[in-house]
Specification:
about 250 residues, alpha/beta, seven-stranded parallel sheet, 7 helices
C-alpha cells in the first residue's frame, strides 16, 4: 500500500505543467482525481487519458479566482466520490514587472489567482475535511516565496502569502482535525508560467533562464512523496530547484 490508492484528490491548474504531471503521477498510484482549470479541451483530454490507462478522473472547468467555481469543483468531488482527501492548490500566474511600471491589473490578477485562489480552494474543501477529521492540503508556492528579486515584488508577495497561509492552516487544523498541510516551492521549472510575463524587461530577464528549468515531473514527484507519507507524518515544506539554479 502506498497511502495514495483510493484517495480522492482535487488538483487546480491541472491542464498543463505541474498540475498535469501531478495528476498523471497520482493516477498511476491509484488516486481518484478531479482535475480543474480554465481550459476545458485540455482537461477533457487529460481525464480521458487517465481513464484509458485504467484510472478514475473527472474534470471541472474552474477559475480559482472564483469562490463559486471552487465550491462547485469540491461539490463535484463529493458527489462523484463521497469525500475529498487531498487538495493540490497548484494554479498560479507570474506576470512579473518592476513596480515602477505600474501594472496594477497584473498585480490584482496575481493576488486574485495566487492568494485568493489558494484561499478559495481551502474554503471549498475544509468543511468536508473537518467532518472527515482527515485531509491534506498541498499548496504550490515558489522559491520566489523565499527570495525577492527585481521585478518579483508582487509575485514574491503572493508566494510568501501562500507559505504563511499553509503554516497557519497546519497550526490550526493538524492536531485538531488531522488535516495535513504542505507547501512546495519549485525553482525554475519547464512550464507555461513564463508565458504569463508581459513586461518586456521581465521577458528579457526570463530569457536568461531558458534551458535551465527542470521537468514538471520532478515537482510532481515531490508532491506525490508528501501525499504518500503515513497519516502520522506531515511533510510541511519542500523546496526543489534545478541543480544549476543558485538564487
Amino acid at each position: 500500500m502506498n497511502n495514495i490508492t483510493g484517495k480522492v484528490v482535487v488538483i487546480t491548474g491541472a491542464s498543463s505543467g505541474i498540475g498535469e504531471a501531478t495528476a498523471k503521477r497520482l493516477a498511476e498510484k491509484g488516486a481518484k482525481l478531479v482535475v480543474a482549470a480554465r481550459c476545458e479541451d485540455r482537461l477533457k483530454a487529460l481525464a480521458a487519458e487517465i481513464v484509458r490507462a485504467g484510472g478514475e478522473a473527472a474534470y471541472a472547468v474552474a477559475d480559482v479566482a472564483s469562490a463559486e467555481d471552487m465550491r462547485k469543483t469540491a461539490g463535484l468531488a463529493l458527489e462523484r466520490y463521497g469525500r475529498i482527501d487531498v487538495l493540490v492548490n497548484n494554479a498560479g500566474i507570474m506576470p512579473v514587472s518592476r513596480l515602477s511600471e505600474l501594472r496594477v491589473e497584473d498585480w490584482d490578477r496575481m493576488i486574485d489567482v495566487n492568494v485568493k485562489g489558494v484561499l478559495h480552494g481551502i474554503a471549498a474543501v475544509l468543511p468536508a475535511m473537518r467532518e472527515q477529521r482527515s485531509g491534506h492540503v498541498v499548496n504550490v508556492s515558489s522559491v520566489a516565496g523565499h527570495v525577492v528579486s527585481p521585478t518579483s515584488a508582487v509575485y514574491s508577495a503572493t508566494k510568501f502569502a501562500v507559505r504563511a497561509i499553509t503554516d497557519g492552516l497546519r497550526q490550526e487544523e493538524s492536531a485538531a482535525s488531522g488535516i495535513r498541510a504542505t507547501v512546495v516551492s519549485p525553482g525554475i521549472t519547464d512550464t507555461e508560467l513564463l508565458n504569463t510575463v508581459t513586461s518586456p524587461e521581465a521577458q528579457a530577464m526570463a530569457s536568461h533562464f531558458q534551458g535551465m528549468g527542470i521537468s514538471p515531473d520532478r515537482i510532481a514527484d515531490a508532491i506525490v512523496y508528501a501525499i504518500g507519507q503515513p497519516d502520522d507524518a506531515s511533510v510541511n515544506e519542500i523546496v526543489i530547484r534545478p541543480t544549476a539554479q543558485t538564487m
